[in-house]
């Protein structure tokens, strides 16, 4: 925090030089620009913090490829609103981080800092790995299904997906506008809260974080609990037991929300097919089989089916409000288990589809581990627009979990 | 429709050459490219129709300046989803049309085809003027406050702002995401319906339009009726009388929705300040006083005030649903009166703020005139997501109104 700008740039460059050859978290960064940017950075509430920008987010200084060869040489004219906010608050943007293709499923080159044979999760792969390895303080990330929560869980870091709409999406490539949500991955809740006070913009808010317990927690194993691995079962039960020592924790049954996963898939597929119309019409040969399949799934959905799914999703959002009359916060699984091996892809989004559909704020907390000793996160959720309270509760909850395991990083 | 592509390009070029020097509806078009595009256009449901693209919408062939000198030389890599859909359906994109700066209030050079001393309305100024002058069949337009309805009213054409979210916004510069809605201006309802079947994408729907009356119409003068001019009072009462000869038309009192206008201003200002963060932070000297004022208004609004306005807007959207148990459609003023003189700007958005806030579909219908013989439109509205019915009812209503006045266009 007290580093001189030039020292900060040198330190960031050294960290990246050390870990990047093995982790491959960045699509582009430039030590010369980094130093210039550090010298030019204004004073502000994020002074001394470094940021990595997921490569579906426009930047005027670096190319923005959206994880696709179609945009390999794409140089936007301007920074996205979120990047401009962070820079104006004194943060140092050190480069662009790897995303899966259009924030969907085709992985980039990034590996998991805790085990380089495993996935960092997707789609915010590079931001999560870079934070876990200490290369950056704040990773800009986004979620349409599970693209922030899952990599945070796999990489053993904090992932904050705020309420839908809290951070402006201007300059962020969209996949499914009903769900697309910008958020952050960070090393701890305090850093997420500092970034939040700036990113909710347009004017930085006064930083505030009051670590305090929620009054009552609901333990929501979700209808997909049987699909989780023992690592996740154990992590969620362990977290619940730790919280229960301080506040009431009751089981919450959301069995009748099981349709949410299919609703989410219907809406996401349809909207992705709309959003990627040009790419499918004019650059189809440059799309992966995964994205092509997503688009073609969307194209096969009748318009009426899509609109009906939107209506049902809206009703679920209204219905879930009553749940938060009884519980301040929920805890739930963040991912099915530990990070999968690279050859198995970026993992299943099943434990986030419901919450993304409901547009609720969620913070993934690290500290617990699975059967192989790898990180397993748990989600803490709150009511829509309850982000300020959720950050406070997460700062409290974070302290009840074990110290997060540091990745055993070699010398690259 | 049966024109050969080359003939169509020649005819479009001739129409533009004739009227454009006086009307100044286009920011860019290229007769050579037009001919090439016509030869290459695929067969499809929009074959033979020409399109103008509002210049906040990305196009790979033409620059996209958003009505701002900041983006004067901005050349996107790709077409927006809406443009790709229209092209794939066989439509011929003839160029980019004038928008006010960032679709807000600073006018471009376009004049009203019915009286060149008057405004075409904004922000979809060029698309509306070009349709009114017969230079294009379909104008892509958008609305965040009244940017589609008002120019349609002033230019004496059909303006269709569908339900929020019906047309994908991928590749469209956003101003206030809670309201930004893509739509069309056209010469008649049938053309709007043909475009709709394509634009609601990703796959063109079967064209269908069944001109039929709604069961019951509500006449909604709105809480802002006293702010309208006699031209608008007369047009709305005249339209109501014509419809009443065929179906029941009852007065509807929405006096208790009066707060909607301020809610709309709060949300739009806050979100515009977020969306234009980079422009304000890094190119402030290139912003107009109007946009600067909008951003600074937004920056002065506390976050909690903004989120509270969002909650109130959501409640109004739920409440208005019951109105459509009693009325299939509403008719309402489209603008305060005839087009204002150029020096008075693009006119007041007051008669659209409520409907934009409520996210309802609306069609502005031409045919009536004001005290100076200039066009005055009326809005026909329906329930959220009732777009298909609304198009059918508008096709019926259109026939009950006088033939629209053709602009008395000289030879440029």
Automatic annotation (TrEMBL), chains A, B:
Residues of the Amidase domain: 11-391
Transmembrane feature ranges: none
Gene3D superfamilies in alphabetical order: Amidase signature (AS) domain (3.90.1300.10)
Name used for this protein in its record: Amidase
Organism: Nguyenibacter vanlangensis
Phylogenetic lineage: Bacteria, Pseudomonadati, Pseudomonadota, Alphaproteobacteria, Acetobacterales
